[in-house]
Amino acid sequence: MLRNRCGRGSWSWSPTTVLQIQASVYLWFSAAYAQSMSSNGVIVTFNPPNIKQLAEDSITNVTFNVTFPNNEHQHVAMFVESNDATIAMLVGNNTFDLVVNETSLNTSGYFTVQGLFLGRTTLKIAIREVTAPYMNILAVNYNVAVVRKEAVQTLIFTIALGVFLFYFNMVFGCKMELPIVKEILKKPIQPAIGFACQFLFMPGLSFGIAKLLPLSNELGLGLLAIGCSPGGGSSNIFVYLLDGDVTLSIMMTFISIVSSIGMTTLWIWALGRYFIPDTSRNIIPPQKILQSLAIVVPGVGVGLLVQRFLPKVAEFLVRYFKPVLGVFLLFLCSFGVYVNWYMFQFFSGMTFLSGLLLAIFGYLFGGLAAWVFRQTWARIKTIAIETAFQNIGIALLVLRFSLGQPDADLAAVMPVSCLFVQILPAVIAIIGRTIYERKCSDKDIIIDYTETEFYVKTKDQNSQDEHGIFTTDNSKQHHGIKEERVL
At a CB cut-off of 8 Å and minimum separation 6, what does 467 contact? Predict the structure, then answer.
């Protein structure tokens, strides 16, 4: 503290304050010389040697033991300071007097550390004399890792998310057409295109982006994990909203998840070592990947049964799909953001850019590959969306089995960032199509999105049924309609 010896304007620093200031400055600049300075015979040990997983808002004690080779330094203190007080901080005393005399060359004590926020930091520890000439004796770093504390809100969010996804997959089951399933199985060109895009193009693209952009090893592995993952469940939602082939989308999602048992593991084994060496030895248990099917298969199966035996219920479920989707999006943007707010604090322009590049090239390559193989417009959209959308859950599994905590949560920032970025082009397409349809409606134009073609028809080209309702039958001979194909 400051002392005013004359009571007016002459201030002087107390010896304790001088020591604390000098120790703080020394902590920042002496860490690089800790190894060489420890050769003077002073030994300091800690129990535990480092803090590996300190939960947020929890505290732990660290015991230290300092041994001097002789009593040359008799007036010594140890100073402890957190390198990042937003991640972990010292609780209570951070300055400790070390007793050194002819009968005692060993001093023990402890300090208390509190975890505040997910991440890694170091405690800078300096041992120095407390009397002139204030000699620096030793400086060491003590590593602290703070992990996320599981909360009840996370469990509630997970359960609610599962309920929403079950409903959506049930609607997709109501929309599935078994004749199309048989057609695709007889000639599986579309699943083959999707497989090549998903497990040949996307892993190489994500690896290239991770190496070209200045990403940390953890974020680079996170981008590779998302690029090696199969199609995500949310792809089915956007295929439905953009009038793609829902049946094909569900089949591609199923096939890619099953294929990822071998393909995702293979790519992580082959390329993960370029980010984190130990990832080449970690194999993801197949049953963990197959758990992703538990989100898709039961809902679709129930939807198929409802479509077969309860057609009116199926019609009801499909009719309220968009209102429920609106509630779901509101839930994600409010409670979902609140529960996962810690992720957003790690977002940066580079994570956004890398995710955006992965998504855009995924859309373009998937659509181009489908166009080269002369697929219909509905299936071009479907394959493009299935290529760009990734299964975030499996990417997080990859990181969990490849990295310890808190590194897995820190690397998870990349898949979560990609989750938000990959839907942007699809949302823009939906908004653009909605605006275009409204303009066409003002001009008495009807847009017909069919399974095989994309047509624009004026009202006087469409036939009316007995109730005066316009029909959009695809049969040209039946209605004698002149149709113009939009390229």
Answer: none
